[in-house]
Amino acid sequence: MSSKRPVTVIGLGPMGQAMVRTFLDAGHPVTVWNRTASRADALVERGAVRAASAAEALSANELVVLSLTDYNAMYEVLEPAAHALSGRVVVNLSSDTPEKTRAGARWIAEHGGIQLSGGVTVPPSGIGQPESSTFYSGPRDSFEKHRATLETLTRAEFRGEDPGLAALYYQLGMVMFWTSMLSYWQAIALGEVNGLTAADVLPHAAETMASMPNFLSFYAERIDAGEHGGDVDRLAMGMASVEHVLHTNVEAGVDTALPAAVVDLFRRGMDAGYEADSFSSLVKLMRRPAA
Ligand SMILES: NC(=O)c1ccc[n+]([C@@H]2O[C@H](COP(=O)([O-])OP(=O)(O)OC[C@H]3O[C@@H](n4cnc5c(N)ncnc54)[C@H](OP(=O)(O)O)[C@@H]3O)[C@@H](O)[C@H]2O)c1
Fold first, then answer.
1. How confident is the model over 248-273, as pLDDT tens digits?
2. Topology classification of domain 168-286
């Protein structure tokens, strides 16, 4: 018998499978269930126990990890099994919006269970790696009770009791990740039509990205203090720069959706009267919906 706590994992996409393998390798008894049953086959060969239904999987263990596409999938899986939620701690690592996450936590509570929301910040290959981390939010005592088991997967960062916070932190990361990576694709496309390979662009791209933390901390302090003065940079200067970026992409004949969206935001800042202020004043536009 293993001395490690048993755990149920529901949802065996690439992420759920990596989690099951990591739990098994660390000696945790694991019960699994997946809509497409065959996705459990290799895990069962490795030592996992296949539950016949979602309800059986819930009943097997107090700690239940959900790794589904989103919260709609959670309702599809758990609604027919809701009677088995009572007394379960459901660690929901399915991505969705903070509001959907809060509603999910309320729904699980109505059925006598507890939801810990999670946001995994790494791809499946990062599961089981000490440098990886996952945000958690929800009842602190439930988190503390299961922290050691959850830390088998990644470092566990508790973000607060509001169940939406883990999803919020996850989305804060994703909004920066997707736009940063698109900016990299744009640089590669622009480089390629000018005869450069992605490998040629890489060192300059990496240096540019590595310079960002200095900008982040400099502007965070000023934004929290409500300071957007044009003493360091001026939006009008930035406007000229982002237009040069757009025109360089137009000249090269590559897609301009991304640089045009940037020009549009700067233009709206100019129209709002921020031309002599820092380009951080654009955050004031972003706080409200586009007119
Ligand atoms: N993969 C990543 O790099 C990564 C990184 C960070 C966070 N995440 C998050 O982790 C979660 C899981 O990731 P993944 O890559 O494993 O996702 P995935 O490939 O979308 O797998 C999702 C799982 O959800 C199940 N599912 C989807 N719709 C369902 C429905 N209507 N009813 C029942 N089951 C349903 C699938 O079952 P079937 O096998 O039957 O289709 C599968 O087990 C997602 O929320 C994702 O955003 C992923």
1. 999 999 999 999 999 999 999 999 99
2. N-(1-d-carboxylethyl)-l-norvaline Dehydrogenase; domain 2 (1.10.1040)
